[in-house]
Design brief:
65% helix, 86 residues, 4 helices, single chain, globular, mainly alpha
Length: 86
């Protein structure tokens, strides 16, 4: 990966440009960006992305869908890494 990658900060608008905000590819891109933030020690930046993805999945799929449950777990991990377990 390029040296500048961990410091890059693509906006959510950039993630949504090719697809609609609720499109599965947009959600996947947001999830991958949050994961990259976590791996680079930037948990505080990952949390809003994880929260937004979870809210979208709850609205689209319901609270008990397996993808929603997985997103909830990923959010909990991000909060734990940031020292904000809830």
């Amino acid at each position: 990966m390029p040296e500048t990658w961990p410091n890059s900060s693509p906006s959510d608008a950039t993630l949504q440009r090719p697809w609609a905000p609720d499109h599965p590819k947009t959600l996947a891109a947001r999830n991958k960006l949050a994961g990259a933030y976590l791996l680079s020690g930037r948990a505080a930046e990952a949390i809003p992305l994880r929260e937004q993805t979870l809210a979208t999945l709850e609205r689209l799929l319901g609270p008990d869908h397996r993808d929603t449950l997985s997103a909830r777990k990923r959010l909990a991990v991000a909060r734990q890494q940031a020292g904000r377990a809830q």
